[in-house]
Amino acid sequence: MKIACWNVNSLKVRLPHVLDWLAANPVDALCLQETKTEDKGFPFAELSAAGYHALHNGQKTYNGVAILSRSAAEDVRFDIPGFADEQKRVAAATVGGVRIVCAYMPNGQAVGADKYAYKLRWLAALTDMLREDLQRWPKLALLGDYNIAPEDADVHDPVAWKDQILCSEPERAAFRDFLGLGLSDAFRLFEQAPKSYSWWDYRQMGFRLNRGLRIDHILLSAPLAGACSACAIDKAPRKLERPSDHAPVIATLDLPAP
DNA sequence: ATGGCTTGAGTGTCAAGA
Q1: Which is the catalytic residue, given A52, A104, A116, A146?
Q2: For chain B, which bases have at least one atom within 7 A of a protein Cβ?
Q3: CA-closest candidate to residue A107, choices A37, A166, A60, A34
């Protein structure tokens, strides 16, 4: 079983890339972030023709998450229960016995900003949700754009980014709180090339100069981490014309495909 | 230098991203 996540930065713009990528990488589940559309603009038909079920928690202009899956998803749930939030950032469903939680975590804008306080509140609420979900679904994966670079090794210039948004200590502590629930960073279960990132700024040749951050992650509960045989970032789509600024992350689980 | 791209909204240019 293969699962993946990708912040597409507008699904309307990126649909050709997504369809091409799925053809080359026929994963069992793909979590999308920043679809930036309501359901009426969501390409259900095109994805169905490509062999994928889709569930979408979207809104106009901003945010929006989707889970694409080869087999039908069960126990679908949107948003964080009990956390009032206008922003569509979470979709969860069970695929092939694995609980898939797709998250587009807040950016936070700048340390100390109102959006930063919202980010930290949001991360705490998600942690509370996951603590309960793990009781019900021991095989759980949390995939998406975390907007957190967990360690300096995940940052091209740790000095410049020190204590900045995406790298601040409270954000990193929130990431460690996920790990404290018993989740493992799939990417770090394996040897990886140094300077591996999942996002590069569009400006000033960020990708060509590999000035990036690793902020897109797949976290796995213990039963899934034990079954994980590979995790990689696929930089190929970032090299295409009009790319997303994020690259997909894929994890291979030694479980039967659903 | 609060600049530098890209997107959606909407048809001016701005908010937001990371």
Answers
A1: A104
A2: 4-9, 16-18
A3: A166
Residues 223-252 of A with CB under 7 A from strand B: 242, 245-246
Q: Is A104 a catalytic residue?
A: yes
The protein residue nearest B6 (Cα–C1') is: A202
Residue A216: CB less than 7 A from any atom in strand B: no
Distance CA A231, CA A65 (A): 22
Nearest nucleotide (CA of A61 to C1'): B8
- Write the CA distances from A164 to A147, A171, A209, integer angstroms: 12, 10, 21
Identify the three-state secondary structure at position A72: coil
The pTM of the whole model exceeds 0.85: yes
Closest CA to B2 C1' — which residue? A110
pLDDT tens, chain A, 258 aa long? 999 999 999 999 999 999 999 999 999 999 999 999 999 999 999 999 999 999 999 999 999 999 999 999 999 999 999 999 999 999 999 999 999 999 999 999 999 999 999 999 999 999 999 999 999 999 999 999 999 999 999 999 999 999 999 999 999 999 999 999 999 999 999 999 999 999 999 999 999 999 999 999 999 999 999 999 999 999 999 999 999 999 999 999 998 777
